[in-house]
Request: fold
Amino acid sequence: GLVELTEQTFEKHVSSGHHFVKFYAPWCGHCQKLAPIWEELANSLRNDDVVGISKIDCTRHRSVCGQFDIKGYPTLLWIEDGKKIDKYTGQRTHEELKAYVSTMLANANAASGPKSGGSAEVPNTMLSLTPDTFKLSIKKGLSFVKFFAPWCGHCKRLAPTWDELNKKFIANSNVNILKVDCTLEASKQLCNEQEVEGFPTLYLYRDGHKVTEYNGSRDLEDLYEYVLTQYQVHDEL
Reply:
């Protein structure tokens, strides 16, 4: 279930494993709305020993919130082995939060490589890539990658379309629709290496190699047609 953390328990609690932590203030309206959903998320994952769902009250435990540079409430951070990996910026519904947990665990599995006795297949949910998972995720087939910044207006407008595009190819294991948040500390170098100069930047990769930058219309139909065309070109070769 849901664990309430304090300054005394926080560090030890998140020092190993995967944690999804809600940093909140009791007076904040959005936090109050999220509270029952967060509780429900924790309950639905209570038998899952791979991920811990917890919360910390920033009005009482300021030093922890300061350490993680919390500027607004609620802030939802994905923490692995004591380090902040990602900040959740999606919809705060039970379904979306649960899907995010699955994606982040899949990312972690992909990064750590095959476990003994089986290969870690990266499920085709939308992966938010980090440098560790990037090379692995684009290695095979066609990969269409969105490099973005959460604060950028064009990126926000593209976000739901990109999710829809991903759904269209979810059954096709040869096409990966991916995204990289260039504002994350872990991804800044990756975005520089890939020569991302503005947001959003959409690059197409084939079997791990960058083929081209997409500069066309960002409508769902146009993006879909583009990927299909690129995919068919590849098939005919």
